[in-house]
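As promised in the previous annual report, we have extended the structural survey to additional targets. Below is the entry for EamA domain-containing protein.
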Amino acid sequence: MLATACALSFGASFCAWSLREAAAASAASYAALSALAALLAVLVNAFIWDQHGPAAATLLLLIALALAGMPRQAPTPQWSTAGSS
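The corresponding structure token record, generated without further manual editing, is:
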């Protein structure tokens, strides 16, 4: 079980590093993806075992997931050359 968890963690870290290196995802979308993976792990844990994290922790994770999806890309500035002489 421990070896499987270590292998899955290593694979997830490698995929995350590859995703950020390829610039296929912004920092905000990467944060949302990470929070979603954590939520999935918590849900699987809640369905498999009787002893799992408190409801407050799950609520805080849901709040983090909602906040991770809020940032938007800043607009590209429009540089004006009207004031230059």
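The chain has a mean pLDDT of 75. The longest helix spans residues 27-48. These points will be discussed at the next consortium meeting with the crystallography subgroup.
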